[in-house]
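Please fill in the sequence for the structure shown.

STRUCTURE ENCODING:
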């Protein structure tokens, strides 16, 4: 027996894959944390031994910052490339640049010497398709041909996008934020952040946005940045072997994604903190800040919009806002909250229908149908024909003396002598009134079509369509208030701040506030939303109107239902995500734990009387993720907990590397080998894979405490004991089922399928 002692301890050396997780399982945050602490302790003690070990320790400490730098550089570059490609392909639907086909409409006319200021978007080098084919620029035939080609290009782009997603990377569809929230909470979805997903998502995102569908690229850019983060994690064992550390990097990558999506580095950090992250230590805050900074700097170097800004929507307003204007701002907040509620309910109902009926079997057909309807309805209206980002940019703009937009067709006073940027309020001309009609139609169209677009099998973001709905509504309200102030400046509300001939009301500001309100209503963001909006537009002095609208929209939307669109999609897909809502029901651990009264007893292992065959039979007959280890079946005194995957790997490894391990070898989890006759086969020591400090609660612990423990410590399971005796087990899924039951939902409908 003694001669075999060193053989029995073979497991004291770690073997490959122990402590890893299977697909669609939840990680054990406490175990990951303690493993990282052990690794850190080992590096610190080794660094005192030699200079080489000290350098290795320093490299390990700096690897986190290096990963952030790489994430920032790659996500910034990809965002710049996506912006340039979308710009070119959106214009490709209408025409082509003859001097260089890779130029977009704007770039084509920049390089032309024959462009006049009045017709800055017309130049001989840029030709619409009908003009190129027929030689005519006007007429019904030309319009019909342009219309037909516009629809054809849109259908081609969307068909290509949905086909690539279906064939190469099914995980590249959707916005990606609900899944990233779930992954950051500790769930494992293998391949969701893989190399193929990164490549296909980048390409199909360009195609989907260019097709003219009512979707944005901002949400998917967060997914793209997280894929970059995952890619660089695999280069460093510190992150690739520890799922907890990997999630710290992914939190920072999400910040970099929003940073390049909106050109809002601080907003990105706050978005990661407020909206997507589950565990966000201070160290991750600094690293997110650094990643967001590098990403924004990279994007600024590429300068995709050609305006030396990080964003398309940069605006400068010349007038302050007045207290009386808070009323329309708050009304826009109410509209944002109502639109958010309508959108979430409509979209979830449609997505549930897609999941439960045969509609879900034809994703390509669905994308083609929605694209066809969108393109056919969008082309006649100039506000829906252009890309949504350009539309928002025009709605945010203030009408200067040099604006040629229809929205700026005001009747000028011929006697006006004023500086160019301070134009007084003027009566609206016919252009403004026709623009208002077109905008109203665009608003109805966007509200309806976005409900059906979000959630299709192509990359689709929600930020830009939501902002477009709000910006259109805001601009309409802004023009209405402006005209009221002009025609009724003697009313008591306008008397104090709006003198005749003054520039009182800025309609663009209302569009900005409306955009913030609608985005807040859909996502329920508040702090990060306001910061993103003022970084996006540079409107620092308009923080109060933005805050008023964001808070109002959240209050109104929360009155109809607490969850934002991402939480609703998490629930629809049944991901095991514990949200931060209070649990107020008065139930106890004993009400939730398994096994229940009429169920078979708990499957357990004993510390020194189970054979290898018993363990293998237990693994084969059950699908539990782990087993409690007790002193004996009679006493049921708890010793620890062992993971199913670790058991399988340990026994497989022992059979390959250790002589004498057969089916009737005794498995023991104690420090010393049990007393067994010499004729018996070699025993197997598995103490190394035993967790000696599993989390336990007593059977009378209130469930609100248990839910809190699961939420704050990120547990997978928790054992229930009474006076040291094992009674049962509560898993994360049991907690989710119980919470659903308490809210009168079907507990099985919320489980991940």
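FILLED IN BY: designer on duty
SEQUENCE:
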């Amino acid at each position: 027996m003694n001669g075999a002692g060193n053989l029995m301890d073979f497991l004291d050396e770690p073997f490959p894959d122990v402590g890893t997780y299977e697909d669609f399982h939840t990680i054990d945050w406490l175990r990951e944390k303690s493993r990282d602490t052990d690794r850190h302790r080992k590096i610190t003690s080794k660094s005192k031994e030699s200079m080489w070990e000290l350098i290795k320790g320093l490299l390990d400490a700096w690897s986190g910052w290096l990963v952030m730098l790489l994430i920032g550089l790659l996500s910034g570059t990809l965002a710049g490339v996506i912006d340039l490609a979308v710009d070119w392909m959106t214009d490709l639907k209408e025409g082509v640049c003859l001097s260089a086909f890779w130029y977009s409409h704007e770039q084509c006319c920049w390089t032309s010497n024959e462009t006049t200021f009045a017709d800055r978007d017309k130049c001989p080098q840029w030709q619409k398709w009908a003009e190129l084919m027929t030689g005519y620029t006007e007429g019904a035939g030309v319009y019909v041909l342009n219309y037909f080609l516009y629809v054809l290009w849109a259908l081609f782009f969307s068909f290509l996008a949905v086909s690539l997603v279906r064939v190469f990377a099914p995980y590249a569809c959707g916005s990606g934020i609900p899944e990233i929230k779930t992954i950051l909470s500790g769930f494992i979805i293998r391949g969701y952040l893989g190399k193929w997903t990164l490549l296909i998502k980048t390409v199909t995102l360009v195609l989907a946005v260019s097709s003219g569908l009512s979707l944005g690229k901002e949400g998917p850019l967060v997914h793209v940045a997280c894929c970059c983060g995952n890619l660089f994690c695999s280069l460093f064992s510190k992150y690739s072997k520890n799922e907890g550390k990997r999630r710290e990097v992914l939190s920072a990558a999400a910040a970099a994604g929003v940073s390049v999506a909106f050109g809002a580095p601080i907003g990105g950090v706050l978005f990661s903190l407020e909206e997507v992250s589950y565990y966000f230590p201070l160290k991750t805050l600094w690293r997110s800040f650094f990643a967001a900074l590098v990403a924004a700097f990279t994007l600024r170097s590429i300068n995709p919009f050609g305006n030396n800004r990080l964003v398309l929507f940069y605006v400068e307003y010349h007038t302050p806002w007045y207290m009386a204007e808070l009323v329309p701002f708050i009304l826009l907040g109410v509209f944002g909250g109502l639109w958010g509620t309508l959108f979430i309910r409509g979209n979830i109902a449609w997505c549930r229908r897609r999941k439960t009926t045969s509609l879900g079997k034809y994703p390509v057909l669905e994308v083609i149908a929605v694209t066809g309807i969108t393109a056919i309805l969008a082309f006649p209206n100039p506000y829906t024909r252009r890309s949504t980002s350009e539309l928002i940019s025009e709605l945010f703009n203030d009408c200067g003396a040099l604006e040629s937009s229809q929205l700026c067709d005001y009747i000028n006073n011929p006697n006006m002598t004023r500086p160019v940027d301070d134009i007084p309020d003027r009566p609206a001309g016919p252009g403004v009134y026709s623009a208002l009609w077109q905008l109203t139609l665009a608003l109805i169209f966007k509200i309806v079509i976005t409900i059906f677009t979000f959630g299709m099998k192509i990359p689709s973001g929600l930020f830009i369509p939501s902002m477009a709905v709000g910006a259109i509504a805001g601009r309409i309200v802004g023009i209405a208030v402006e005209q009221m102030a002009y025609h009724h400046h003697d009313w008591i509300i306008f008397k104090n701040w709006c003198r005749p001939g003054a520039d009182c009301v800025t309609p663009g500001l209302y569009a900005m506030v409306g955009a913030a309100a609608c985005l807040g209503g859909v996502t329920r963001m508040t702090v990060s939303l306001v910061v993103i909006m003022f970084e996006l537009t540079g409107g620092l002095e308009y923080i109060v109107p933005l805050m008023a609208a964001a808070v109002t929209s959240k209050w109104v939307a929360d009155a109809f239902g607490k969850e934002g669109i991402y939480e609703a999609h998490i629930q629809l897909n049944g991901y095991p995500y514990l949200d931060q809502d209070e649990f107020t029901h008065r139930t106890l651990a004993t009400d939730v734990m398994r096994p229940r009264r009429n169920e078979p007893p708990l499957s357990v292992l004993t510390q020194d009387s189970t054979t290898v065959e018993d363990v293998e039979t237990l693994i084969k007959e059950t699908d539990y993720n782990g087993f409690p280890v007790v002193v004996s079946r009679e006493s049921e005194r708890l010793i620890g907990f062992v993971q199913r995957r670790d058991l399988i790997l340990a026994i497989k490894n022992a059979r390959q590397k250790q002589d004498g391990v057969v089916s009737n070898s005794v498995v023991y989890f104690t420090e010393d080998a049990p007393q067994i006759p010499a004729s018996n086969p070699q025993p197997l020591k598995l103490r190394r894979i035993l967790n000696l400090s599993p989390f336990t609660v007593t059977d009378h612990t209130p469930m609100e405490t248990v839910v809190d423990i699961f939420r704050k410590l990120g547990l997978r399971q928790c054992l229930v004991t009474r006076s040291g005796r094992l009674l049962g087990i509560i898993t994360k899924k049991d907690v989710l089922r119980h919470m659903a039951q308490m809210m009168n939902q079907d507990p099985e409908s919320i489980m991940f399928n």
